[in-house]
Amino acid sequence: MGSHATLTVPTPERMGRLGRELAALLRPGDLVLLSGELGAGKTTLTRGLGEGLQVRGAVTSPTFVIARVHPSLVGGPALVHVDAYRLGGDLDEMEDLDLDVSLPESVVVVEWGEGKVERLSEDRLEVRIERALGDTADEDDLDPRRVVLTGVGPRWTGVALEALA
Ligand SMILES: Nc1ncnc2c1ncn2[C@@H]1O[C@H](COP(=O)(O)OP(=O)(O)OP(=O)(O)O)[C@@H](O)[C@H]1O
Ligand SMILES: [Mg+2]
User: Fold this and answer.
1) CATH number of the domain that 98 lies in?
2) Is the pLDDT of residue 94 over 70?
3) Is any ligand 1 atom within 6 A of the Cβ of residue 21?
4) Average pLDDT, the chain
5) Is the pLDDT confidence value at 135 over 90?
6) How far apart are CA 149 and CA 7, in angstroms?
7) Quick one: 25 exposed, middle or buried, by C-beta within 10 A (0-12, 13-18, 19+)?
8) Residue 11 Cβ < 6 Å to ligand 1
């Protein structure tokens, strides 16, 4: 049995904070799979992860590259940020990305990776982000997100994801 949590995240700032808090749970070798429609907040969450992990460089939407490596500034794991949106097939091609980094020593975060990267690791944290209010969200500039975290595999057994709430 994996661990599980559902959170409501009211603002982009809070999404960043969730990323920073989540970073504290992450270890070298972890795979985080982010899903959700365009503009859901995947990169915003990843930016918070980068802050929490204290890595170098701004986490942005990698428009021209599929993956970007952010080395740690503090001797911790690097953040490998993958945008698999334009990637066909599945990421056996992870080697093909030719990253100058050791994945077992990094935290790998993949946007749009569903169905493409699961077999990189039997253990993974799946994060699904959706608009909590759907199309009714335009009042008060508030556009909260529902974030569903699911830890898959032995690595995540017993990890208290619900403490992130
Ligand atoms: N509650 C919220 N949580 C996260 N982002 C929010 C929230 N409310 C509004 N936003 C806005 O939604 C946008 C999310 O953009 P972001 O680039 O993080 O999405 P994405 O899922 O990475 O999109 P893409 O699929 O294009 O990569 C930002 O402009 C952010 O400010
Ligand atoms: Mg993005």
Assistant:
1) 3.40.50.300
2) no
3) no
4) 89
5) no
6) 8
7) middle
8) yes
Ligand 1 proximity of 8 Cβ (cutoff 6 Å): no
Does residue 136 sit within a domain? yes
- CA 106 – ligand 2 centroid, Å: 20
Tokens coding 97: 């990305």
Residue type, 160: A
Q: Would you call 51 helix, strand, or coil by DSSP?
A: helix
Residue 163 lies in a domain: no
Q: How many domains does the chain have?
A: 1
Residue 93 domain-assigned? Answer: yes
- Does 84 sit in the ligand 1 pocket, CB within 6 Å? no
Is the overall model pTM greater than 0.70, yes or no? yes
Ligand 1 centroid–CA 42 distance in Å is: 6
Find the mean pLDDT for residues 111-132.
89
Residue nearest to atom 16 of ligand 1 (CA): 41
Is residue 39 domain-resident?
Answer: yes
59 residue type, one letter: V
Q: How many whole angstroms from 151 Cα to the centroid of ligand 1? A: 22
Please state, in angstroms and rounded to a whole number, the distance separating the CA atoms of residues 157 and 139: 39
Mutational pocket test of ligand 1: of 43, 85, 141, the residue with most ligand atoms within 8 Å of the beta carbon? 43
> What is the domain range of residue 15?
3-156
